[in-house]
Design goal:
It is a single chain. The protein has 339 residues and is α/β, with parallel strands linked by helices. It has two domains: 141 residues, Rossmann fold (3-Layer(aba) Sandwich); 157 residues, Alpha-Beta Plaits. Helix content is 47%, strand content 17%. It has nine helices and ten strands. Strands 2-1-3-4-5 form a five-stranded parallel beta sheet, sandwiched between helices. Strands 7-8-6-9-10 form a five-stranded mixed beta sheet, sandwiched between helices. A hairpin with a 2-residue loop joins strand 7 and strand 8.
């Protein structure tokens, strides 16, 4: 057997704290024994495999930090074993250092091509072995630390994105009714106005007021009023089915509905559906002059945006229609073109 270790460099009193987990792959038991003893004395944790196939089977029980791999082995030589490791996504990042005797035919280029990071020759100079091990263990530790930092940063960014999403949602949501708030309405109407102006399509707006809501608050208290607002808002929000439509709380007991690509007749159908949805709630309102239950007054308008008009025009038309609906006895929906 070829001399494996140049013993004049052996350190008898080595540190006991493990410095790295090393897998040794060699078909000669004596080589494994000597190298294991050497590395253990130097403070490393070493385990052995007598062949490449055994190493491939046992490696997953505990992944090593680095592999020392002999070139000349039966069944699978070192190149084939290295290639097998590099083809496996779970194992490909483990650094592999080849071991070769000075008088063996050793294809260094092929060793690097199959994924080796370094090589050492027998008999070993222990200082060289340690230097090469520590170099690649340090690189591996730094790589893992970098991967951890990247993963941590990605996780932090995801958490931040989610927090920003929730903040944005909260900023655009009415805290009581859990539908869009006035800010969201203003922003969305502006963007939809620009889109419909560009496409020259009709944009409709419904303005809604709960009839005699002050009386409702006086009769059932503010908590009762809040419950009424929540139930009405949620019922209305279920009526429009398209993602481009928006139901929002405009303020107090007033609500608005933006309907994209909708003419006056289309807006009337949605207004009637909203009336039916609220009627189905059957919320008792003893102080109403028009019904024993909560009802709505609605005004709506539809127009095609142009450069000489602004979103405020559409709001004004719908508001005028709402005023007329209330003046005419409430519990009804009136279109601007009927004024």
């Amino acid at each position: 057997m070829k001399e494996l270790i140049n013993s004049e460099f052996v350190t008898p009193n080595a540190p006991l704290e493990p410095k790295g987990n090393i897998l040794l792959i060699d078909d000669l038991p004596e080589n494994l024994r000597l190298l294991t003893e050497l590395l253990t004395n130097l403070g490393y944790t070493a385990r052995c495999a007598i062949s490449g196939s055994r190493a491939l089977k046992s490696i997953r029980f505990k992944l090593p930090d680095i592999i020392l791999l002999d070139i000349q082995m039966p069944e699978m030589d070192g190149y084939q074993v290295c290639q097998a490791f590099k083809d496996d996504p779970e194992l490909c990042d483990i650094p592999i250092i080849f071991i070769s005797a000075l008088d063996e035919t050793f294809d260094k280029l092929r060793a690097f091509q199959v994924g080796g990071v370094d090589y050492i020759t027998k008999p070993f100079q222990i200082e060289e072995v340690v230097a090469r091990l520590e170099t690649h263990l340090t690189i591996q530790r730094q790589k893992k630390q970098l991967q951890y930092e990247i993963a941590k940063r990605v996780q932090t960014e995801l958490i931040l994105q989610e927090a920003n999403r929730k903040l944005e949602l909260m900023a655009n949501l009415d805290s009581l009714t859990q539908i869009a708030n006035r800010r969201r309405f203003d922003d969305y109407l502006t963007s939809e106005w620009q889109r419909h102006q560009r496409d020259q399509n009709s944009l409709a707006l419904i303005m809604i007021d709960i009839d005699y809501f002050k009386r409702y608050n006086d009769r059932y208290g503010h908590q009762g009023g809040d419950d009424c607002l929540m139930r009405v808002a949620q019922a209305m929000s279920q009526v429009p089915k398209r993602s481009t439509d928006l139901v929002a709380r405009y303020g107090g007991e007033e609500f608005v509905v933006i309907l994209s690509n909708t003419d006056t007749q289309g807006a009337l159908k949605v207004a009637q559906a909203i009336q039916e949805a609220i009627a189905s709630l059957a919320i008792i309102h003893e102080n109403s002059d028009v019904s024993d239950y909560v009802t709505l007054s609605m005004g709506f308008a539809s127009l095609t945006p142009t450069l000489d008009l602004s979103p405020e025009v559409l709001i004004s038309y719908a508001d005028q229609s709402l005023y007329l609906a209330k003046a005419n006895g409430r519990n009804q929906a009136i279109a601007y073109d009927k004024i």
